[in-house]
Amino acid sequence: MNPSIHQSWKLQLQTEFDSPYFKDLMTFVTNQYAETQCFPPENLIFNAFEKCHFKDLKVVIIGQDPYHNYNQANGLCFSVNDGVKHPPSLINIFKEIETDLGIAYPISGNLERWAEQGVFLLNATLTVRAHEAGSHQKQGWETFTDAVIKTISDKKENVVFLLWGGFAKKKAKLIDVSKHSILESGHPSPLSANRGYWFGNKHFSETNVLLGKLGLVGVVW
Fold first, then answer.
1. CA 158 – CA 59 distance, rounded (Å)
2. How many other C-beta atoms are found inside a 10 Å radius of the C-beta of residue 5?
3. 143: number of CA atoms within 13 Å, CB side?
4. CA distances from 195 to 192, 201, 216 (A)
5. Nearest CA-CA partner of 221 in 209, 197, 210, 205
6. How far apart are CA 45 and CA 33, in angstroms?
7. Which member of 18, 24, 56, 65 is catalytic?
8. How far apart are CA 151 and CA 191, in angstroms?
9. pLDDT tens per residue across span 27-45
10. From its phi and psi, is residue 71 left (phi > 0), alpha (psi between -120 and 50) or beta?
């Protein structure tokens, strides 16, 4: 399996692609997709990199696993295809945007519209077996996506990282806070949100304030 990934990222990540762990990972993924139902569709595994090019990136949101039910995962964290029922975490994201910015709750849960504005929607693990959360963890994806986060931190400046929940917050150690901004909160999943760790974080307005101070265009959430 050869990763279909935008040229702007290839230039930054070639060392990873050439490394033994990544080749082993691609063999694992190829075999899994041949033997069983996996998500997202194979052509969308690297969709986050296709929809948000390295030079355009200004915000990073880190998820954990792709959705593992049919027709949900489209290679962008928290995002689902047009016409698909919104999963609970995405509902809570949209509710927070609604109260934070006074924006009407959207019909579509497809977050490509964010990615095309420079929001990089990265899952730590880019593939999963159907109906088995976490089934492709610890196969090499985390090594790769940690390298991606570190590359963004090293090669870019003034990126806003949104770290939601304990898993994402652990990625803070990969980010140089002298040149980037980090906003942290609980996870938007109902378990966390209903205990008061998500709603009211105002991350969407705060992100745009931070971008505005840098002379960058805010995100139309």
1. 9
2. 17
3. 14
4. 5, 13, 34
5. 205
6. 11
7. 65
8. 32
9. 999 999 999 999 999 999 9
10. left
| pTM of model > 0.90 | yes
- φ and ψ at 213, to 5 degrees? -65, -25
Residue length, the chain? 221
Residue 103 DSSP one-character state:
P
Kind and range of the H or E run holding 162: strand 160-164
Rounded CA separation 126/210 (Å): 29
Q: How far is it, in rounded angstroms, from Cα 166 to Cα 2? A: 32
176 among known catalytic residues: no
Task: Rounding to the nearest 10 degrees, give the CA dihedral for residues 100, 219, 72, 128.
Answer: -110
Matching residue, tokens 């040229």: 7
pLDDT for 122-153, tens place per residue? 999 999 999 999 999 999 999 999 999 999 99
